[in-house]
Design goal:
Blueprint: H1 5-23, H2 26-43, H3 48-72, E1 91-94, E2 102-107, E3 110-116, E4 125-133, E5 136-140
Parallel strand pairs: 3-5
Antiparallel strand pairs: 1-4, 2-3, 4-5
Helix pairs in contact: 1-2, 2-3
């Protein structure tokens, strides 16, 4: 059986896709795109250096763009994401703050420790939950 370089590129793309399916990382799919570009370059008659250059350019660019997209669209951490943590955005009443910026508040029928994370000076009154850090509510006005 006589294998061409294009066949090796297609096999590499298939292996990368199979490993991606097992691990769930999209970065391997981007590299598989590069391997497909290398196979197409082989079909077009480019030599091994041209094939590798095409594969590196397409795979590297796709990986870079995917990484930038993920960074830009990375959701807020679960502690402060109202889609994940339903407490975020709810209101609580603070009677008084201690000197270290902590308070005890009643929320959902239980006593919670609260910490002020706002820019204004901490005062008693209505506050909004901005995040939850373990069993401590992080509050802002």
């Amino acid at each position: 059986m006589d294998w061409s370089l294009a066949t090796a590129w297609w096999i590499a793309a298939g292996v990368l896709i199979a490993v991606e399916l097992a691990t769930g990382t999209f970065y391997l799919l981007m590299l598989a795109l590069g391997a497909c570009a290398g196979a197409l370059a082989a079909h077009a008659g480019l030599g091994p250096p041209g094939q590798m250059l095409c594969a590196a350019l397409v795979g590297g660019t796709a990986t870079f763009l995917w990484h930038r997209r993920r960074e830009r669209h990375h959701p807020a951490p679960a502690a402060s994401n109202p889609d994940v943590n339903l407490d975020v955005g709810q209101s609580v009443h603070v009677d008084a703050w201690s000197a270290d910026g902590l308070a005890q508040v009643q929320y959902r029928g239980a006593a919670w420790r609260a910490r002020y994370v706002g820019n204004l000076p901490a005062q008693g009154g209505r506050h909004v939950i901005r995040a939850v850090d373990g069993s401590c509510l992080l509050l802002d006005r």
